[in-house]
Design goal:
This protein is an all-alpha fold and 87 residues long. The chain has five helices and no strands. α1 packs across α2. The radius of gyration is 14 Å and the shape is elongated. The N and C termini lie far apart (43 Å).
Length: 87
């Protein structure tokens, strides 16, 4: 049985569809999916779909609720600072 990811309860997309759209979909689709993942997926599951590099590239374009945007912006800043300090 093919199931849809729990964070897309209202769309008829499979796990394979999501992975494919994130890799080969147009920019608007990738932005929508990444936004949905960051807002609705568990933290550990985010990394099943997005790499840190992909998140950084898409982040300025994502449509996120303000508290979600602030939390992810802070995390990206902390990770960037840690990386530049060699951690």
């Amino acid at each position: 049985m093919v199931t849809r990811p729990y964070f897309l309860w209202d769309y008829d997309l499979t796990e394979e569809d999501v992975q494919s759209l994130l890799r080969t979909g147009d920019e608007e689709t990738r932005i929508w999916l990444a936004s949905r993942i960051l807002e609705s997926a568990r933290y550990a599951d985010v990394w099943r779909y997005l790499s840190l590099a992909e998140l950084r590239a898409l982040f300025p374009h994502l449509k996120l609720k303000p508290p979600v945007r602030e939390a992810w912006a802070y995390a990206l800043q902390v990770w960037e600072t840690a990386a530049s300090n060699g951690r």
